[in-house]
Input
Amino acid sequence: MTPASLRGWRLVHRWTSLICSANLLILCVTGLILVFHHEIQHLMGEDLDSSYTEGQARLPLQSLVDIAQKADPALVPKMLSFDAEDKAVNYIYLGKPEESGFDLGRWVVLNGFTGANQMLKQPEETLVGFLLKLHVDLFTGFAGQMFVGVMGLLFVVSTVSGLVVYGPFMKKLAFGILRFGRGTRIGNIDLHNLFGVATLVWAFVVGLTGAILSFSPLITGYWQKTELAAMTARHPEPMTGSMVSIDRVAAAGLAAFPGKDLAFIAYPGNEYAGSRHFSVIVRGHTELTQRLLSVALVDAETGVVAEAAGTPWYMTVLMLSGPFHFGDYGGLPLQIIWALFTIVTGMVTVTGFVVWLKRPRARAAAAGRGAADGKMQDKLGSKA
Amino acid sequence: MTGVWRIPAALAALSVFGLAAAILGDGVWDWLCWATLSVPLAACAVKLWRQWPGLSLLRSPPGAN
Output
């Protein structure tokens, strides 16, 4: 590498890191706690009611929808969402009849076995909800979420540029050398290099998947407006009669993809469905295949599958970003490992910042300026 | 590969394998994930433990050598 390009990489590493460092620290602290969100929700009594006895039959989906609608008869069902981990937890979105999005209505959470209705608390009212808001969008909605996504991308560039400048710096140094007796700057440089290079792959993966998740509204929006819209446009027939039951729709969708589980069902008129077709979105049930979605359009009047398809690669990337960001795919030991990596990443951030604060050039320049000023004053003084 | 990259490359390879392992399956895959992902963390801990000033007495009690 030429000295000029090394200088360039150093500049990239310095500025990408500095710009994202404050946000990164917030992400590390909130993320460190959020790794254990299930355990915390359980401790705080904030977890959802998912109790059922072994062998108990699920309630028909139609009766769940009826229970949900009873809470707010002015609203109509628009979307059903099924928890991948917790079979008993069902989310039902009720919206205004004319609404195609998710802005004017509300989500109802039902136990799929007992029908027990539980009000979703506002995120600010629970500890996990509060931390998640802070982590995802800094309490500033969509714009904040995009901001955090850009910070995530800067962090990714910072890890890559950090790797590039690591090599030349360590040319004459042993891996993991920590020169604590040589002053604050050297000690922090060595800690930064050791922790940074040892956890680089993890930090890169968690940073990149975090950025991808931040941009999830754009990614799902793109899929919905392109492939899904093209699919529903091929079946433009309007509703003329009455709808078959939601359970028949679900069964038809599942029959199109044997061995899969329900993930979402969007009602006709919702932006994820057709004008007269339900979208039944299914997933597998292993750690890997539960992130692979497929969609079937089911005619609401006949209960017949009109078209079935997979989802494009970018939706799979988005879905797979979840586990690799949350660290929730390998039990409690992996959560603990995730937390430890988060702590080390926080220390890389802090030591890197200290190295920047203690940069010699600023001191030398300041000292040089000071000396020059002194000389000037001497001259002026002698003149005066 | 020069000496500078030997250990970082090994830690990176273990990290990639560990991150992927638990998504591929459960049981033995989980154990492989936990074991391999612990290595980079252990490397940090060992280097810190061996070189942290003030711990030298703990590490080699007088007369141990």
Remarks:
- The interface with chain B takes residues 166-167, 170-171, 175-178, 180-181, 194-195, 197-202, 205, 286-288, 320, 323-324, 329-331, 333-334, 337, 340-341, 344 of chain A (CB under 8 Å).
- Strands of chain A lie at 76-82, 89-95, 106-111, 117-118, 261-266, 277-283, 293-299, 305-310.
- Residues 63-119+236-325 of chain A form one domain.
- The two ends of chain A are 54 Å apart (CA to CA).
